[in-house]
Structures are given as C-alpha cells and as structure tokens.
Design goal:
This protein is of the alpha/beta class and 266 residues long. 28% of the residues lie in helices and 19% in strands. The strands form two sheets. It has an eight-stranded mixed beta sheet. A two-stranded parallel sheet has the order 6-9. Helix 1 packs parallel to helix 5 and helix 2 packs across helix 5.
Length: 266
C-alpha cells in the first residue's frame, strides 16, 4: 500500500508520519516547514505574553503526548517533499507527480489547499483530520472553543473527506479520548486518538467500508475564525475553571473511536 500525507513538521506531525510508515510499502510526505519548532507562537497569532503562556502549555502537552518526535532517519519507505510554509499551492500537479500515485491521501496540518491540487485530492477521496467535532465545531481552534463554551463533551477530532469548503466534507467517523482534568492534555490526546484510529482502520481496511455521513449544518454551534482568537479570549480561557466532567452522549458521534488514558503518553 502507498499513502501520501500532506502535513507540517512539529512533533505531532512527525509522529503521524512515523506511525503510518509502519503499515505501508511507501509513504510519501509533502511537508510544510513552519518556524515554530521550539514552541514559539505560530506565526498567524500575535506574539504577546498571554499567547506565549497559552502556547507554552500547548507545547508541553504535545511533548507529553508525542515526545520530541522526528521522522525516522534511514527509513527507506519514507520519501519527503519539503516545502516552506505557503508554498504548497504554488506547486503544480506536475511538480508533485511522484508523490501523487498513492492508494490513500491524508491531510493533517497542511495549508488550506486550493486549485488543481484540491480537485485531484477530492477526486481521490482524500481524508482530512479535523481537530474538532464536526458539525458542531468548525473552523479554527475548535477544541479550544468547545472548552471555552463549556462543551467539554464535544472535544475530539473528525475524520472526514476533504472538500473545497473548510471542514465541510462528509464524515467518516469521530475520534475521542478518555477525559483527564488537564484541558491541554485532554485536547492533545484526541489528536493521538485520530492518528491511532486512522492507522488501525487503514491497516484492517475498514476505513474503505465506512458509510459517509453528510454534515448537518443545522447542528453547528460555532464556526470559529482566526481573528476571534484574541488576547482577551485566551486570558479568559486561562483563568477559567474548565469543567471536563460533562457526561458524553455518544449518540452525538459517528462510529467513534476512544483512546484510553493508559495510551495517552509515550
């Protein structure tokens, strides 16, 4: 089997690459390199004291869940096409052709894909990992907003088919994790749940048998945008007492996968 992954280069992205490399003959990685490897604030957010405090907690949670993952050196079944952030949509299908002959295409952490590339990926039923539970939370920083809104039961990830509109493709299933009191560990653990569930369901080929479910937009609670993630909101979040004990109604989720606490950290 051949898989192509469109992703970034932080620890969690590298962890996904290594994980998938264990189940394929060839893994093609189109990887955008972002400048925030040392835990600095992502470039699309302002560099303020509040943001530094918030993203340091995100970085610590990522380290606890994924360690300092690097793509395995010497692994001959991994082929990498490195790009700078923002270059992906400048690449033609011809440039990427050696990386576009796979059985499965996965998008996680890449730039918003446009043009002929997104057309190709949609045609080939590419899978997108959305960190948030669609259709309830769509857009940016969805698990942050679910916790901010007091909806800890709607923290998780959605594995769905890629579409031109953000987080709008038909849902395959949801990935969740058991609850813990630390909101940063809790949200990051749902990332790991998405990775391990996808590996398992590709490996046993059940991913190809799942019946797609069109998203019911009437159930949407929030469509969040980057501009809403402000110092004021983040400060309120950091000062909140986040209640993660809300009972989960599993009927809200499709074919859910649950990651157990003993599998959170490496």
């Amino acid at each position: 089997m051949k898989i192509t992954v469109f992703t970034s280069n932080q620890s969690r992205h590298n962890y996904l690459v290594n994980l998938l490399s264990n189940i394929v003959d060839e893994l093609f990685v189109i990887q955008e390199n972002t400048p925030n490897l040392l835990g600095s604030i992502p470039i699309h957010y302002p560099s303020t004291k509040i943001m530094k405090s918030y993203f340091s907690k995100v970085t610590n949670a990522q380290k606890k869940i994924f360690g300092n993952a690097h793509i395995k050196k010497g692994n001959k079944n991994i082929k990498i096409f490195p790009l700078k952030l923002g270059e992906l949509n400048k690449c033609s299908l011809k440039i990427l052709k050696d990386f576009l002959n796979s059985d499965v295409y996965i998008v996680y952490g890449a730039s918003y894909i446009k043009g002929e590339l997104v057309e190709f990926l949609i045609q080939n039923k590419a899978i997108n990992i959305h960190m948030g539970v669609s259709p309830y939370y769509r857009g940016r920083d969805c698990n942050f907003w679910a916790l901010y809104d007091g909806n800890s039961h709607l923290v998780g990830s959605t594995i769905h088919l890629l579409s031109k509109r953000l987080d709008s493709g038909s849902i395959l299933y949801h990935a969740l994790s058991e609850k813990v009191s630390d909101p940063f560990i809790y949200t990051m653990s749902t990332v790991k749940s998405a990775f391990h569930s996808l590996k398992a369901r590709i490996e046993d080929k059940s991913i190809f048998k799942i019946k797609e479910q069109t998203q019911d937009k009437s159930k949407q609670i929030r469509y969040s945008k980057k501009i809403e993630f402000t110092d004021k909101v983040v400060k309120e979040f950091l000062n909140k007492k986040i209640d993660i004990k809300k009972i989960v109604d599993l009927s809200l989720f499709k074919d859910h996968y649950l990651l157990k606490k003993n599998n959170f950290c490496i």
